[in-house]
Design brief:
alpha/beta; globular
């Protein structure tokens, strides 16, 4: 991921006249087609039909619930004192595939987004960490991603407050 939006890349290319720029990938020259979007993958754990909480996460090019960040995500969910059947997780890479949107459309209850990106892809709007957004009979609370908490451990206390608010909503 270059860190630049497509709008920024278009501005650099079309307004400032850059012929090419390498930022982890080649920016197409004028007249060339942009590269195809990254292929998105999806992984679901738990039983959606039995869960009381849907945890969603979106990674750039890799799944969120892996490695050290995955271990922290598991600890965060365990700290909420929910049973194994109470939580289902849906994570994806790149952009949310249609199946994720279908799961969200049919979800009745509360969701927890690890990171703002997943929530933005599901509801089509940026939401700050800590926000709880109600959409009919669905609610989604946004908290920091486990990867961010590993880099900024001082935010763990804030994330814990988010998890406690979700626990209250579920009780």
């Amino acid at each position: 991921m270059s860190g630049l939006s497509e709008e920024q890349i278009v501005y650099l290319r079309d307004v400032l006249g850059l012929e090419s720029l390498v930022l982890g990938r080649q920016v197409p020259s004028r007249g060339e087609s942009p590269p195809p979007p990254a292929v998105s993958e999806m992984r679901i754990t738990g039983k959606l039909e039995a869960a009381r909480l849907l945890v969603v996460a979106a990674g750039d090019s890799a799944f969120v619930f892996t490695g050290e960040a995955g271990a922290l995500a598991s600890k965060m969910i365990q700290a909420m004192k929910l049973g194994a059947n109470d939580v289902a997780t849906v994570e994806w890479t790149a952009t949310a595939p249609e199946e994720v949107h279908e799961i969200w459309k049919n979800w009745k209850g509360h969701a927890l987004s690890f990171g703002e990106r997943a929530a933005a892809q599901l509801i089509g709007a940026e939401n700050p960490s800590g926000a709880t957004i109600a959409m009919g009979d669905r609610k989604i609370t946004v908290t920091d991603s486990p990867a961010r908490l590993l880099v900024e451990p001082e935010r763990k206390k804030i994330a814990w407050a988010h998890l406690q608010s979700v626990m209250k909503l579920l009780s």
